[in-house]
């Protein structure tokens, strides 16, 4: 069964700030890739995708995970591919980490989706809309409050 996990970002958490949030995305990508998942991280724009890729380069060597922007890197791909609106992921991905605030029309090609409920009210409302869309599409849904070291 296809699943969607929404991670809830609390206002007082380190993930409420951009650097903390991007570090948490890296943490999740590392966690899932070490389990063998092929991951597509969907960003809102090319600029945000490039910013996230830079975060992936700035980690300690023990935390590094191979990654590439869509269209770059080896032909067979790395475990983590980073893309943005208007760019389709490689076909061999099982897990989508959605960082864009709009609905992902291609999410149905993934067996597992990770999404976020941000702090800001407008972004929270957009997350609620995505939640409804996933529910109507028949995904099994769950929510998790982020509990990550500060």
Automatic annotation (TrEMBL):
Keyword Lipoprotein applies: no
Q: Name one GO molecular function term.
A: DNA-directed DNA polymerase activity
Q: InterPro entries in the record, alphabetically?
A: DNA_pol3_chi (IPR007459), PolIII_chi_sf (IPR036768)
Annotated keywords: Nucleotidyltransferase, Transferase
Q: Which residues form a coiled coil?
A: none
Q: Sorted alphabetically, which Gene3D superfamilies does this protein's record hold? A: DNA polymerase III subunit chi (3.40.50.10110)
E.C. no: 2.7.7.7
Gene Ontology biological-process annotations: DNA replication; positive regulation of DNA-templated DNA replication initiation
Q: What class of enzyme is it?
A: transferase
Q: Does the keyword Nucleotidyltransferase apply?
A: yes
Q: Which PANTHER family match?
A: DNA POLYMERASE III SUBUNIT CHI
What name does UniProt use for this protein? DNA polymerase III subunit chi
């Amino acid at each position: 069964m296809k699943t969607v996990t929404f991670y809830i970002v609390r206002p007082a958490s380190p993930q409420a700030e951009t650097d903390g949030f991007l570090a948490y995305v890296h943490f999740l990508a590392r966690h899932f890739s070490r389990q063998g998942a092929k991951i597509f991280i969907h960003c809102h724009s090319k600029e945000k995708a490039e910013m996230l890729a830079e975060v992936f380069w700035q980690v300690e060597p023990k935390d590094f995970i191979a990654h590439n922007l869509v269209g770059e890197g080896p032909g067979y791909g790395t475990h983590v591919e980073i893309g943005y609106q208007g760019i389709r992921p490689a076909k061999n991905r099982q897990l989508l980490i959605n960082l864009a605030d709009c609905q992902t029309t291609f999410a149905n090609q993934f067996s597992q989706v990770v999404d976020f409920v941000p702090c800001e009210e407008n972004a929270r409302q957009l997350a609620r809309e995505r939640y409804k869309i996933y529910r109507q599409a028949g995904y099994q849904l769950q929510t998790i409050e982020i509990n990550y070291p500060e």
